[in-house]
Amino acid sequence: xxxxxxxxxxxxxxxxxxFMPARPTSAAGPAMKxxxxxxxxxxxxxxxxxxxxxxxxxxxxxxxxxxxxxxLRLKVPDGYVFKPHW
Length: 86
What we know:
alpha+beta
C-alpha cells in the first residue's frame, strides 16, 4: 500500500517528460532580438496626426505591411500627453 503514491508519481513524471517538447515552439518562428544604441536609431518626422516636433523610428520589421510585426520608437515634445483612446 505504501508504494502506490510512488508509482503514481513515477507515472506522472514519465508522462510529463514524454509529452513536454524538447524546446519551446512558436508559430511565428524564433524571436529576433534587436539591440541598438541611441546613436544608431534613425529618427524621422512623425505623421501629421502627432504633434509637431514628434519623431518616429522603426526598430524592426516593416510598419507599412498589413498584419506584419514591427517595433517602433516615438519621441514627442516635452509635456505632451496622450489622451485616452480606444
